[in-house]
UniProtKB/TrEMBL annotation:
Residues 23-50, 73-100 are annotated as: Disordered. This is DUF4331 domain-containing protein. Residues 32-41 have a biased composition (Gly residues). Keywords: Signal. Residues 1-20 form the signal peptide.
Length: 234
């Protein structure tokens, strides 16, 4: 059973990563500023412009929200998706928008979750896992069919920000530790009945590396700033 679940997760994650890679945009080879690479003292300019003078170009809240739930470059933008900052795809539109407007993307989020739950329902059933979606495989086609899944996911991703309740233990979705298996937990939250299965069901499978790829036995420090020592150049 573990091998079957591992194969299922690898398929889902592979599709997600391929979607993210296909959406990459071109960038200049020279990312440095005019004052930083030629020696001498760099110039620092501190501006006092109001926020309205700037346009947000990217942001990061919860893991994989834009990558997994929204369409990337070259794919048609759904009518329900608002366009922020003249973005030409759904992912950029979310990233360039403000979290206060994230509820406007709910229709697209729901459409994608319906599709994913319907596509994987027969696989989850064959593995003996309890789904959060109702309905037979191939017949999950409405928000009502994934109501339980949405009840878990919606409060976490709308708005797409990281929240922390300091009165409760911290680990995603309450805050986020550098080593939290966030994508595994996201998949469990949107696919499984969490009254039956633990949130870490997928994370506990022997699918992930034991730690940092370069230093497998290394874990992030427990104290601020929670960063490992840099890896020495060979």
């Amino acid at each position: 059973m573990k091998q079957s679940i591992t194969y299922l997760l690898a398929t889902v994650l592979g599709a997600t990563l391929l979607g993210a890679c296909s959406d990459s945009s071109d960038s200049d080879d020279d990312n440095g500023g005019g004052n930083g690479g030629g020696g001498g003292t760099p110039t620092v300019e501190i501006r006092s412009n109001p926020p309205s003078d700037y346009a947000r170009v990217d942001r990061m809240g919860q893991p994989a929200v834009a990558t997994a739930l929204l369409r990337g470059g070259g794919q048609p933008i759904r009518d329900s998706v608002p366009i922020n900052n003249n973005a030409d795809n759904e992912r950029d539109s979310l990233n360039q928008g403000d979290p206060s407007g994230d509820a406007d993307f709910a229709g697209a989020f729901v459409d994608t979750l319906i599709f994913v739950n319907n596509a994987l329902a027969d696989d989850l059933d064959s593995l003996g896992l309890s789904r959060c979606a109702t309905g037979a495989p191939g017949e999950i086609d409405s928000a009502d069919d994934i109501n339980a899944c949405l009840g878990v996911a919606a409060p976490v991703v709308i708005p797409d920000v990281v929240t922390l309740d300091i009165s409760s233990p911290s680990s995603w979705p309450n805050g986020r530790h550098p080593d939290d298996p966030v994508v595994d937990r996201v998949l469990a939250a949107v696919l499984l009945d969490l009254s039956v299965h633990p949130l870490d069901l997928f994370a506990d499978l022997p699918l992930n590396p034991p730690g940092n790829d370069a230093r497998p036995d290394d874990v992030s420090p427990a104290n601020f700033p929670y960063l490992r020592d840099p890896i020495a150049m060979p």
